[in-house]
Amino acid sequence: MIYLSHRLKEKFKSAKDSGALFFQGESARHTQILEVVGESTYSFDLTLLPSLQHRPETGNANDNPFSKAEPDLTILQTYGNEDEFRLILNKFPVAENHFMMVTKKFRSQDSPLSPSELHASFKILENLRISEEDSRWFAFYNCGPESGASQAHKHVQFLTLPKGHPDFNFLLAQSSEPFIPDQTHEPLQDPNLPYAHFVVPLPESSAVNDELLALVFTSLLQRTLTTLAEEELSNISYNFCLTTSYMMMVPRTKSKFGCTVGINSCGYMGLVLCKNHKIYEEVRKNGIFNILAEIGCPSRYGQVSSEYHY
Ligand code: AMP
Asked: Which of 70, 91, 252 for a ligand 1 pocket mutation test, highest count of atoms within 8 Å of Cβ?
């Protein structure tokens, strides 16, 4: 693990050079979109990335790409306290060095992250934070049928925020001391954001352990389940994002806005990816907050937990 950053970059370069992955980062068109709510301005990175057209829209149970290791994409054959994971490059990356932690045995992408999956993800982020001072890595997990996930085999993805991109969730997390949510202390919510989202700041990494990660994750999942139940949704879908400074969960109602604009966890980190001009124009026309609100649930700002909640 000491050499993760080095190994990842080396592997990404060779996979790109050999054509083992599809990435045309040079042709990506980034547009900064500012949306104003109340007195606050929020910044989004809208990226047109035609190489994403190659990405399969849905996985296929008979052709599961994560069931076997593809040597050209494999960063670490084995990882985790019980050697239960592999680290692999994303074959259709949305940015340089985009990679994933996949379970070796099949586990469902509809299941919540286990304590060992949370711990392993946090360790990866911590390792990258120490070795790459100027990169801002985050992990994300698209859980459930409406989350924007395309593969059924469990995978947590790792990506960096673009340079200079302000992370509005981080600013929200920074507004409080770290805490573990309970009946009297709700996860943070930005009153300006038009969708339900639950954010909890984490203490410094030396104070983060398996138990804390599991407690915070469970508290976010409880709020998410309550929100989905209130919206009378029969399936459980949410986006989950983790950095070394905070965790966030966003309940989801739809995987797509209209028929074309697919959004996953990255959208709620302010990163909207479009694989063609039509989608790009659709996003520009509708506005990003309108889209995120439509495919999420109404804001729960001010709502406190009660005995009727999960
Ligand atoms: P999600 O859409 O959140 O389920 O993430 C699945 C990811 O797997 C997508 O970002 C795809 O780009 C990626 N992917 C699809 N097929 C492969 C493959 N054969 N090898 C590696 N990554 C893949």
From this structure: 91
Report pLDDT digits (tens) over 233-254: 989 999 999 999 999 999 999 9
Inter-CA distances, 308 with 36, 183, 223, 230, Å:
35, 12, 12, 11
Nearest CA to ligand 1 atom 3: 149
Strand segments, DSSP code E, in the chain are 29-37, 40-48, 74-79, 85-89, 99-103, 137-143, 155-160, 198-201, 238-242, 246-251, 256-257, 261-262, 271-274
- Weakly modelled stretches of the chain, pLDDT under 70: 1-2, 60-61
Task: Give the residue, out of 16, 49, 62, 90, with the most ligand 1 atoms within 8 A of its beta carbon, to mutate for a pocket test.
Answer: 90
Q: What angle do CA 263, 161, 127 make, to 5 degrees?
A: 115
Question: What does DSSP say about strands 271-274 and 40-48: parallel, antiparallel, or unpaired?
Answer: parallel
pTM here is 0.97
Q: Catalytic residue numbers?
A: 155
